[in-house]
Amino acid sequence: MFDVVVIGGGHAGTEAAAAAARRGAHTALLSFDRHGLGAMSCNPAIGGLGKGHIVREVDAFDGLIGRAADQGAIHYRMLNRSKGTAVQGPRVQADRRRYAGAIQAMLAAQANLTIVEGEAEALVLEGDRVAGVQLADGSVLACRAVVLATGTFLGGRLFRGEERHLGGRINERAATLMAQQLRALGLPMARMKTGTPPRLDGRTIDWARLDEQPSDSDPWTMSPMTASRPLPQIACAITRTTQETHAIIAAAFHRSPLFTGAIEANGPRYCPSIEDKIKRFSDRDSHQIFLEPEGLDDPLVYPNGLSTSLPTDVQEAMIASMPGLERAVITLPGYAVEYDHIDPRALDARLALGALPGVFCAGQINGTTGYEEAAGQGLIAGLNAAAHARDLAPVILDRASSYLGVMIDDLVLQGVTEPYRMLTARAEYRLSLRADNAESRLGGIAEAAGCLSPERLAHRARRLEQRATLRDRLATVRTASDLARSGAAIAQDGARRTAYEWLRFDGVTLAHVAPEAAEGLDPAVVAETLEDARYAPYVERQAEEVARLRADEQILLPVSLDYAAIPGLSQEMIDRLSLARPATLAAASRIRGITPAALSAVLLHARKMAA
Amino acid sequence: MADTIFAVSSGQPPAAIAVIRVSGPGAFAIVERIAGGLPEPRRASLRRLRDEGGATLDSGLVLCFPGPATATGEDLVELHCHGGRAVVAAVEAALATHPGVRRAEPGEFTRRALTHGRIDLAEAEGLADLLEAQTERQRRAAIGAVEGRVSQALRGWMDRTATLSAAIEAMLDFAEEDDVPLDAAALERIRNEMDALGRTMLEAVDRPPVDRLHDGIRVVLAGPPNSGKSTLLNLLTERDAAIVSPIAGTTRDRIEATVLRGGIAYVLTDTAGLAEDTDDVIEAIGVTRAQEAMAQADILLWLADTPPPREDALWLHSRADLPGRGALPDGRALAVRRDDGGSIAALWEVLAARAAALLPREDALGFKRHQQDQCRKATLALLSAPRADALLMAEELRLARQALAALLGISATETMLDALFGRFCLGK
């Protein structure tokens, strides 16, 4: 008898299994093939804007993705380096084989975790709760909770020009039976589309003709637990589409399953296929294409920006029309995938299915895209599946705490109309949700959830102590003339402020207010504190907003609320509220299209019910 | 399912005709039974209206409007009956006998229109005002809101804010994309547009709110006991609103009277005389309340012989008809005499001029006070954003979006994301 069975060994599944096991749950990870665990099925990169934030947040819970990214990283790049740290996004190119190897090694070393090879065929139900997972060979894994992390394998269909295949990734099987069962259970489901570009043989690319993008020289890492970068760093290159490329693609529109109507599901607006980009933005004469190496000892190159489902012959002509790629050989043509996903509004903030106690869902099955989004959901689903099985406290994050909280709130309240990708623009409290303060924001919650290793706990204690020391040192009061003497260009208003308060002024640095304060402290702690000081006035203003939000979160709405019975709500509102079942008035207010008038009707009705 | 509601929509009977509106999922079914069959949509048709027992109630015009393209967004029926009280009561009673059909709560038709997305919040408020409009100017201001002029302005500002937001967010979230201009000049351009938008909004919003059109201009008469305040009130209202007597302290409490004049509503308040020291407890309370009224006055009429407590007060020389008070002393705006209607007309002219400055111009957008407050919040955010810091500019734009979205009842983030993906070729 397992506490938790996780179905699926991608980024959501591996993270969920590890998280459940870290919380002490006796966990099984079920996958077709143990050597496929932790595979990066699309681009060989981890992190980015919004996504890098999630990696750091998962890492603050001692998750896998950040440390594995460092083990596989062959190129580091801090995006938005010239802008505020709140929108800086750490991103790495990772060696595909070494990344998966790192994930597999961490899973093998994880206590309480068993890896089971096999195909999940069906959920075993006892009444309306889950009791286990039945495999294709007829055996059953009995358990108290299941995490579904099946990615694009649920009812997956591949499209390339006129070709069609069943499967979630090329040359792999699809989990068709499971999809049928979930549909039969009456869960709200829909289809989504994603795509991937052709892979190139790097030995046939004329690198000398292309602009290079070197790896960052400063030695930052994805996880603070990584002492230093273990692999040598290599450069990426940039090429561009040409007028000829655009002409080739436009001439083949009628052969793209996207335009012929063969694919009906929605794809993401922010990660469009190249044919979509050419069609929608016909005024642009060129698009940038990043050539990303897939590994140190792997000749494969991923041309980022060329996702397509055009037929192979068109892909070949299109590649040959770009500078540096004239002779490039395609080793695997690009394709589009259409797959089933659950309407995530059927889930609660723990990522648990309301209709089927004990079942949790994470990753693409919830309509999201991206390794990081998947890993983040895997973490939360795993922690809460363990909680469900072992009667522990749930881990629920709100929008003010983290990108994880923003993502889950968006998913379970709004649902998805296109594959959901994290953007920093989605986070209202972006100024306080920085990639560099994830540990400070979430360390306490992670520690309380009991999912941190002794090494991480020691690291956290050291950090907390250093932060306190620095804040202490910055509490000294300095006058405007003190600052002027140390060379700061500020107005001589005779003000007396603490060093910390002075740091919010433009041009005031640590050297002006407390030159010795950083002595003996971790540079990351110092940088984080300086950033806190700089944005303090804005963060304080947002804190008032957060206080209001949390007050409204106290007004609970009964689960049994019959929205159809509330006079004055439109059918659209009734549908949205019934699907999302908001737990609180604040959650209801965030659902799209719910007006203040509708909200007061909901509140009045709920009060009448309670009376 | 929602109830089906009905109400007389044409004003209280008796009248020549009465229009009874029925709205909701059961509207057609009920009217079919009462009118013996439904006419073609949107065509007036003469029908005999009968109760459940088949007795004739009235004969009248029946109009059917299938939802959702109706005023409420639901199936809607209008019954044009004869406007006698008994007829209307009988038709209403016949409607109410059907299950799931009931008399509408006040404002419920508007609320349904709002919840079905037929109108937005600003329009709904305008409609409520229109229904209550007493004066022609109120009506015009309310029409402005119903026709969506206010909403149109708010939506236009929201669009511009969302577009600016999208431009910044594209720089922040898609820095790697070649479609996103990243130079300082682009940032400067956006910042300048924030300023321009902020100033446009401020100019439109920084005007007297429409609330005074509805609530009336508060005119307060104050002065020491026996200075002729109540007499003046009666002259202004042309009726005996206040008891007038030569005994000082006759008015113990505030007396209010509403006067419609020149299309403007005034609330005139007579106050207890401001006795310096009084032993009378009731009079003392009256004095306190008089002082409160003076503080809240839009126009203060000051009738004492000592200078007024507020600089903007209108200092009147009252009781000019009494012996020895014929000449106008220094500092007084006007003399008023009980025996000279011309002096009262002159005072009204001054009041009308003052009132005009306190009311929105007729062609101006009529914002309500809370709309002004939200717009000012948005304006402050737009104008106070630091320069050359994309992140903080984005934060201020977010606040502006949020303030405007609260008025329009739409999601601020979605509007911005739509603008973002519509305009830029993003994503790899």
Structural commentary:
The complex is a heterodimer of chains A (611) and B (428). Chain A is of the alpha+beta class. Chain A folds into four domains: 2-197 and 338-449, FAD/NAD(P)-binding domain (3-Layer(bba) Sandwich), CATH 3.50.50; 199-336, Elongation Factor Tu (Ef-tu), domain 3 (Beta Barrel), CATH 2.40.30.260; 454-538, Arc Repressor Mutant, subunit A (Orthogonal Bundle); 553-610, Orthogonal Bundle (DNA polymerase, domain 1), CATH 1.10.150.570. Helix content of chain A is 36%, strand content 19%. Chain A has 21 helices and 22 strands. In chain A, the strands form five sheets. In chain A, strands 1, 2, 6, 7, 8, 9 and 20 form a seven-stranded mixed beta sheet that branches. In chain A, a hairpin with a 4-residue loop joins strand 8 (129-135) and strand 9. In chain A, helix 2 packs parallel to helix 12 and helix 3 crosses helix 4. The longest helix of chain A is centred in the middle third of the chain and has 20 residues, at 371-390. Chain A is globular and about 75 Å long. The model of chain A has no long low-confidence stretch (mean pLDDT 90). Chain B is of the alpha/beta class and 428 residues long. Chain B has three domains: 4-113, 2-Layer Sandwich (Gyrase A, domain 2), CATH 3.30.1360.120; 149-208 and 367-423; 213-358, P-loop containing nucleotide triphosphate hydrolases (Rossmann fold). Chain B is built from 14 helices and twelve strands. Chain B has a six-stranded mixed beta sheet with strand order 3-4-5-2-1-6. A six-stranded mixed beta sheet of chain B has the order 8-9-7-10-11-12, with helices on both faces. In chain B, helix 12 (369-384) packs antiparallel against helix 13 (390-408). The longest helix of chain B is centred in the middle third of the chain and has 25 residues, at 149-173. Chain B is flat. The mean pLDDT of chain B is 80. At the A-B interface, helix 21 of A face helix 3, helix 6, helix 13 and helix 14 of B.
